[in-house]
Amino acid sequence: MEKTNLSAEMADAAAETARVVQNIPKTKSLDDSTQCGDWDLRTLHGWDVAKATGQEYHATAALAEAVHDTVTKQAELFRKYDGFADAIQVGDDKTTFAKALALSGRDPG
């Protein structure tokens, strides 16, 4: 079996995810999971991986807003099925992305 550079593969995967997200047509509803998929929730998992590996995760303002909107709308449903932990309280001075993380039960630090 050929050895691969896992870090390079993860970077390629992250770049591809970013490219896909940037190319979602602006005419499609972010609420329509049949058309847009769950890319915004995958962003939360990307943050999980970054945090677990000691890296920073940077979300654009537009992505942060989209994630926050989805988490706001879906948090209680996800909590009902143990998909999200209880929300964590954060200050008003936190970024939109940090607020989305906290609402999903993640500690943005």
Question: Can you give a write-up of this model?
Answer:
It is a single chain. With 109 residues, the chain is mainly α. It has one domain (6-21, 37-103). 58% of the residues lie in helices and 0% in strands. The protein is built from five helices and no strands. The radius of gyration is 15 Å and the shape is globular.
List keywords for this structure.
single chain, 109 residues, mainly alpha, 58% helix, globular
Mean residue pLDDT: 77
Tally of alpha and pi helices: 5
**Tally of distinct domains:** 1
Rg (CA only) = 15 Å
The oligomeric state is single chain
Give a quick precis of the structure.
It contains five helices and no strands. The protein is mostly helical.
What's the SSE blueprint?
Blueprint: H1 6-22, H2 33-36, H3 39-52, H4 61-80, H5 96-103
Helix pairs in contact: 3-4, 4-5
